[in-house]
Each structure stands twice: as structure tokens, then as C-alpha cells.
Design brief:
With 79 residues, the chain is mainly alpha-helical. The chain contains 3 helices and 2 strands.
Length: 79
């Protein structure tokens, strides 16, 4: 049951990152992937400080997901 909660929180983090970067509407699968990968990157770079939900520190996770969304958008050339 813990993995389901992690996927839900990852999707929410990915959706927040998409909204902040104006790259929303990429789909729920992309949001989940961006949220989970961004969470790993953000916590590896910034540590696990701040509030935590679903095993992820929210602030570093959102920052990491923003980085992932921006890089993917740049590589794919999306506007």
C-alpha cells in the first residue's frame, strides 16, 4: 500500500512542477514519472528537509521535479 501512496504523491508533485513551469497537460503518466524522478534528484542534491509526505520531502522533491520537467521540455523542444 505504501507504493500506491508514493505514486499518488509523485503525480501531485509532477503536476505542481508542470504548473509552475507552464508545461502542464503532459499527462498523468508523465507527472508521476517526473515527480518520482524529480523527488530522487531533489533529495539527492538538496537533502530531505521540510515537510514529508509519502516518503518524500516535498520542497526538494518539487524543486527536483521542476528541473526534470524543464530539462525534458528543453530536450523535446516543447513550448
Amino acid at each position: 500500500m505504501g507504493w500506491l501512496w508514493t505514486i499518488i504523491v509523485g503525480g501531485i508533485i509532477g503536476a505542481i512542477a508542470g504548473a509552475i513551469t507552464n508545461r502542464g497537460g503532459s499527462g498523468i503518466i508523465f507527472n508521476v514519472i517526473a515527480g518520482l524522478i524529480g523527488s530522487s534528484i531533489g533529495q539527492a542534491i538538496l537533502g530531505s528537509w521540510g515537510p514529508s509526505l509519502g516518503g518524500m520531502a516535498l520542497i526538494p522533491s518539487i524543486i527536483g521535479a521542476i528541473i526534470v520537467v524543464a530539462v525534458v521540455s528543453f530536450v523535446l523542444g516543447r513550448r
